[in-house]
Amino acid sequence: MGATGIIGTTSQSNCDVGSSLIGRVGTVGQVNYVTQSCWAADNVIVATPKGIDSRYAYFLLSGIHLPGLASSTAQPLLTAAAIGSVRVDVPTLEEQRRIAAFLDAEISRWDELARVRTGHWAALDEYEMASIADTLSGSATMSNGRPTGWQWLPVVPADWRIGPVYAYFEAQLGKMLNSDRAAGFDQAPYLRNANVHWYQLDCSDMATMSFPPEERYRYRVEPGDLLVCEGGAGVAEAAVWDGRVEPCYFQKSLHRVRRNADVPVEWLMYWLRLAKYCGVFEADGNVATIPHLTGEQLRRYRIPIPPDGERRVARLSREVEQLSELRGRIAQADALTAERKQALIVAAVTGQFDVTTGRGADLS
Questions:
Q1: What is the CATH number of the domain that holds 35?
Q2: I need a surface site. Which of 82, 115, 281, 304 has the fewest CB within 10 A?
Q3: Is residue 287 part of a domain?
């Protein structure tokens, strides 16, 4: 082996088959192999092999540490000059091709496993939606149920009520944020749409703004409140506040929903989940702009109301929790697969084991 510079680089170019595209900003360091000629945008670096096998170069770039620099915004940034200066030991061309062929075969197996797990994700999503639909419909059929007029939830039991959200819940938007409030007195933590996801809240990144005493009752969230995203890609996503931060308030990007009848807020949360899945909010809004679920829209939606909502919600919540645990296990398996795949690439391109036998590398 001999140390050599392995690639020529440009920041924006037509890239030929056999080149590698390296994320320069955003997906920094992510490497993709070019299988057909294309135009590279300025957020990637085109790496062209010099005197080595192109597939081997791709795996080598995927397996070595690429030199990164910090930009003025402290965001990791790769430069063409830095990557072009990389010098590594490379084997003979014959050995490069042997390593590349070995990795192509092995990585295809890992990728097939990943595709199978993607199918598992889709199956869990379908099962979850089917469970929610069955609960919200009361398992009613056209022969024994009451037509709703909704294509996505056509029938509910004949003895169920159907009424507007405002008849069973109180919904209110949060406080508008501006620069004065962000820096004023009486600072307190608040929730925004970035903190709310389906069934769960992420409080790892909470901001603060001014909530003077006269506003605290109006904008405070209490345990048991449902928080619903008002707009953006996560429109209608909802989760129940558990009181983990006290006191806590909410921004105008969220609706706070409280029950004022015998219907649990989780019932509305699951209704929103199914409605979003079925495209209800896209159909009701202007899809050419950022989708919004206004307070007026939310309050006027008509929903089915069972006489035993608490029992039905408790049973459905157990199912949803079990599905969440399964997703967590799949995510852990995916992370382990990605880790093992990367370890395999590193071991192969650094000569830690002989690819003709596949022995010698500890990937644990």
A1: 3.90.220.20
A2: 115
A3: yes
